[in-house]
Amino acid sequence: YYVYLLKSTKCKFIYIGSTPDLERRISEHNAGKNYSTKFYVPFKLVYYEAYADKRDALDREHKLKHHGSVIGHLKQRLKILLLCDQEGYLKRAGRGPEVGHSFGVRVVVG
């Protein structure tokens, strides 16, 4: 199960969600199939976390959506990681533009 953050490429709208199939869900968002996001398409994936248990993913999604300090801390960490990447401190890992991954967490750059 995944908890993910999408950012609209046409405005500053950020969407937080959870799903068992991340690729399918992002495709649905970008196809305008989700009422709460269809006005902000297209999106790019900026962050996701992987969980073995659905309940853990749902708990994390809830905390990110309903506890301002939790999303604030995450945004601050992402900002630092993105700045480090721009300055060349992080090496790109694996295939594609993913950096800073460990323990089921990926920050997506680019």
Keywords:
alpha+beta; 110 residues; 3 helices; globular; 5 strands; 27% strand; 5-stranded antiparallel beta sheet
Radius of gyration: 14 Å
Helix content: 25-40%
Sheet with the most strands? 5 strands, antiparallel
Overall geometry comes to globular
Q: Which class do the helix and strand fractions yield?
A: alpha+beta
Span between termini: 23 Å
Order of helices and strands: EEHEHHEE
Low-confidence stretches: 89-104
Into which percentage range does the β-strand content fall? 25-35%
Mean pLDDT: 78
Q: Treating each run of at least 4 consecutive H or I residues as one helix, how many helices?
A: 3
Total beta-strand segments: 5
Order of strands, widest sheet: 2-1-3-5-4
Protein described:
By secondary structure, this protein is an alpha+beta fold. It is 37% helix and 27% strand. It has 3 helices and 5 strands, in the order E-E-H-E-H-H-E-E. A 5-stranded antiparallel sheet has the order 2-1-3-5-4. A hairpin with a 5-residue loop joins strand 1 and strand 2. Helix 2 packs across helix 3. The radius of gyration is 14 Å and the shape is globular. The chain starts with a strand and ends with a strand. Residues 89-104 have low confidence and may be disordered.
